[in-house]
Amino acid sequence: MPAQKLSFQPCALVAAPILYATCRASWLEKEKKREKIQEKNYGASPLATYKEKNLKTEKSREKWKIKKSKKIKKKYKKAEKGKTEKIYKEKILAILNKAKE
After folding, report:
1. Residue 6 class from Cβ within 10 Å (0-12 exposed, 13-18 middle, 19+ buried)?
2. Distance between CA atoms of residues 54 and 99, nearest Å
3. If 56 and its partner were Cys, which of 13, 44, 47, 95 is the partner (CB 3.0–4.6 Å)?
4. Could you tell me if 39 and 53 are in contact, meaning their C-beta atoms sit under 8 angstroms apart?
5. What single DSSP character describes residue 101?
6. Positive or negative: CA dihedral 56, 62, 67, 72
7. pLDDT tens column, 13-46
8. Which of the given ranges, 5-14, 43-52, 79-88, 91-100, has the highest pLDDT on average?
9. Rounded distance between C-alpha atoms, residue 19 and residue 79, angstroms
10. Its domain of life (predicted)?
11. pTM for this one?
């Protein structure tokens, strides 16, 4: 009796687990890279729970508020410097004008 033709290649049985393993490994690497990128961006990973996502967003909001307040303080200090310099200039000019008279 002649041997029956196989409907699939026997080498596919050997190659399939190898392909699956390599695809799985590359997928895991990509997932790790995504997590690292999202940690840098202070965002939560897509696989994180609802609470974890909220914590991440709260932390990023706090950091943003701190940065914003620092910028405002710097602007205020610059404005104060400008005002005090103007006041000192006016006082010096007033003293000089009095000295001239």
Report:
1. exposed
2. 67
3. 44
4. no
5. -
6. positive
7. 566 666 666 777 787 888 888 777 666 655 555 6
8. 91-100
9. 65
10. Archaea
11. 0.28
Distance CA 62, CA 7 (A): 62
Cα 87 from Cα 85, distance rounded (Å): 5
Residue type, 19: L
Length reported for the chain: 101
6: its two tokens:
């196989």
Q: How many whole angstroms separate alpha carbon 88 and alpha carbon 100?
A: 18
pLDDT in tens, 60-87: 888 888 888 887 777 777 767 777 777 7
